[in-house]
Amino acid sequence: MTSPNREQIVAALEGVIDPVDGKSITAKGMVQGIDINDEAVNVMIAVDPAQGPALEDLRQAAEKAVASVNGVTTARVALTAERPKAANPQQPAAAKPHQTGQRPQGASQKPLELPTVRSIITVASGKGGVGKSTTSVNLALSLVAKGLKVGLLDADIYGPSLPRMMGLRDAKPTPSGTQGKMIPPSAFGMRVMSIGFMVDEEQPVIWRGPMAMGALEQLLRDTDWGDLDVLVVDMPPGTGDIQLSMAQRVPVTGAVIVSTPQDIALLDARKGLNMFRKVNVPVFGLIENMSYYKCPECGHVDHIFDHGGAHKAADELGVPFLGEIPLDLKIRLGADDGKPIVCTDPDGEHAKAYGAIADKIAEAIDDQVGPTTEPKKKSLFPKISFK
Predict the structure, then answer these.
(1) CA–CA separation, 306 vs 329, rounded Å?
(2) Residues 181 and 260 placed together within one structural domain of the fold
């Protein structure tokens, strides 16, 4: 099958009409970005902030038009609301402060509704390289081991890693019985969604912030998650547009911050924690990853990156310290090979460390939204084998 080109996509979008004035969205310059990866096409359309929430029909029409192009197998169209320009071009418009105790929302967009998802947990870090994605995977699977119904979302649009970590590198979402929905790939008893299923692993995703956030919102909205107790979201590192938009647009139940013991990592972790506080997202606590190295031969413990910094920071910031995870080659190899440590060695020391943290997170969720009324099912992990 021949891959579509940009000209074909633009031609298809010429027939999509803005209901506000009856003009083509291409003639008005509303098409702000087109990304083509083989048969998958992503389009970003800029709309008036005042009209944004009412233009879902336009978005669907554009998506249908793109999907009709020969060679397109996956079409995604996202809307982005541009900010109105200030009256004086030399002076930016003043932002209105949000009231204390209220989570600020997008200028004209309603929060995303995920009625089948009981709670949403974001796993975040102030900087990259601290093992946040590995932690997200093993915590999510530890919650599965507790008998909870769990989904896992890769929110790192620019550097998706969960397809590899979950052993799903060649997997693709499939159409759902519900119009416009996708059934995500599954592994180890939970559904997993990532932009990595739509783009080549070695291809960079070069999108502006609004386009990346639009794609992320569609992953959330158009995925058939089923009934979930917990949706674990592996966040990108830092405190940029995606993190802020997630906090504003998604009903996040709580955030978990991952750091290593070094001072520089803890400094960035504090920034991430304070960002969630400013948008009134509860912070469930800090995890110290790569906390120590224990020699498998003699049992000697070395604190390679210092030790106890996250615990001290948690105390100073007034949030719980959730636990520490050691630096161990088996954890890293399991992540690289798509064989998470909590599944390959469910009775081991590392799985127990992740499990103890998952227990605290589950308790924090119950405190926020109330305990689940359905009985928990027994873990299947001891029966899983890798060949």
Answers:
(1) 18
(2) yes
332 by Cβ neighbours in 10 Å (0-12 / 13-18 / 19+) ranks as middle
Write out the residue range of the structural domain in which residue 169 sits. Answer: 120-370
Q: Is 371 exposed, middle or buried (0-12, 13-18, 19+ CB in 10 A)?
A: exposed
Same domain, 232 and 346: yes
Structure tokens at 374: 């359905």
Q: Is the pTM of this model over 0.85?
A: no
- CATH number of residue 77's parent domain: 3.30.300.130
323 within 8 A of 310, measured Cβ to Cβ: no
Do the bridges between strand 230-234 and strand 190-194 make them parallel or antiparallel, or are there none, so unpaired?
A: unpaired
Based on the structure, what is the number of domains in the chain? 2
Residues 248 and 335 in one domain: yes
Give 137-177 pLDDT, tens digit per residue.
999 999 999 999 999 999 888 888 999 999 998 888 888 77
Angle at 76 between CA 118 and CA 61, to 5 degrees: 105
Q: Counting beta carbons within 10 angstroms of the beta carbon of residue 380, is it exposed (0 to 12), middle (13 to 18) or buried (19 or more)?
A: middle
Q: Which range has the top average pLDDT, 93-97, 145-149, 154-158, 374-378?
A: 145-149
Angle at 130 between CA 218 and CA 242, to 5 degrees: 25
HSE-CB of 237 using CA atoms within 13 angstroms: 15
| Pair of tokens at residue 65 | 């038009």
User: Could you tell me the CA-to-CA distances from 106 to 110, 189, 247, 273 in Å, in that order?
Assistant: 7, 34, 10, 21
Alpha-carbon distance of 105 to 71, in angstroms, equals 38
Same domain, 75 and 153: no
